[in-house]
Specification:
The protein contains 13 helices and seven strands. It is of the alpha/beta class. The protein has a domain at 3-110 and 146-198 and 264-276: P-loop containing nucleotide triphosphate hydrolases (Rossmann fold). It has a five-stranded parallel β-sheet with strand order 2-3-1-4-5, with helices on both faces. Strands 6-7 form a two-stranded antiparallel ribbon. Strand 2, helix 2 (61-65) and strand 3 form a beta-alpha-beta unit. The longest helix is centred in the middle third of the chain and has 15 residues, at 110-124. The radius of gyration is 19 Å and the shape is globular.
Length: 281
């Protein structure tokens, strides 16, 4: 397949680390053409409601290329599926795509990422009812914060020239400089972001009407990104509420979880010595 029919830039994780905002910020660049939906889940390890019509288990790359059919003349063709960092299919197939994609990973202090995911599932999607202490002990979820466990094979598969690792904390503190650095990595003009308005996307809020939210997600792929940017504040006023206050007892649990991640964080720093992890201390 011709390389220009496939993405050459993929945001591959991690969930609850600002990847939604990053997808929109990068896709706003005039040299970037993004898939109409942020998360294609094409290289997921299972068929789910997001990839029923396009997944690597049941379809050829031609189906994936349909996401980028309007992008063949763009220097950068982008998609972002945050859970790719955890998927074996993604690890095995993305590095060998004929488009030689550069792959971005955004990481967040592990205990904070897990707590954000907990509040997302407890109060937004309402998939769980357990308390933070119980949720924090689930080993399969704790492993998702052991970033080096997942990144070592990605680094081996991609090589250092095709992998870019940054942090959520850097995106929050100075999004302009963080995204300019990513633009330089992609070989596009970083000065586009000198006057760019960095609107935050997918902030964890309580959803009032789940049916409206599902309908919005279904329609999203048909709405140009600039219109999505304009409509987001209105949508949040209509269908988003404040999250419940944090339980005062949660902080002690988070502190203990953070301490348990310390060896993993040290290993991550050793593997990526230029990565500024000082905010995680």
């Amino acid at each position: 397949m011709e390389p220009n029919r496939l993405p050459n830039a993929i945001v591959a994780g991690a969930p609850k680390c600002g990847t939604s905002s990053l997808y929109f910020w990068l896709s706003a660049h005039p040299e970037v053409c993004a898939s109409p939906v942020k998360e294609t889940f094409f290289f997921a390890d299972e068929v789910n409601r997001f990839n029923l019509n396009a997944n690597c288990l049941e379809h050829r790359l031609e189906r994936y290329a349909e996401y980028f059919q309007k992008c063949s003349k763009s220097p950068v063709r982008l998609e972002a599926t945050a859970p790719y960092i955890y998927y074996q299919n993604a690890l095995e197939r993305i590095p060998s795509l004929p488009s030689n994609p550069k792959v971005f990973f955004v990481l967040r202090e592990p205990s904070a990422r897990l707590y954000s995911q907990y509040r997302f599932e407890r109060f937004r999607t309402k998939r769980i009812q357990e308390d933070w202490g119980t949720y924090a002990q689930r080993s399969e979820l704790r492993l998702h914060g052991d970033y080096i466990h997942y990144l070592k094979p990605w680094l081996e598969a991609l090589g250092p020239d095709r992998i870019h690792v940054s942090t959520f904390e850097a995106l929050v503190k100075n999004p302009q400089e963080a995204v300019k650095d990513m633009a330089r990595f992609l070989g596009i003009d970083p000065e586009f972001y000198a006057s760019y308005d960095f609107v935050q996307h997918n902030e964890t809020v309580a959803i009032k009407n789940k049916s409206m939210h599902r309908a919005g997600l279904a329609l999203q792929r048909y709405v140009p990104h600039r219109i999505q940017e304009a409509l987001l504040p209105l949508y949040l006023r209509l269908n988003a509420g404040k999250m419940p206050a944090k339980d005062p007892g949660d902080a002690a649990i988070t502190k203990a979880v953070k301490a348990e991640y310390a060896p993993s964080v040290a290993a991550l720093q050793a593997a990526f010595p230029k990565l500024d992890l000082s905010p995680w201390a």
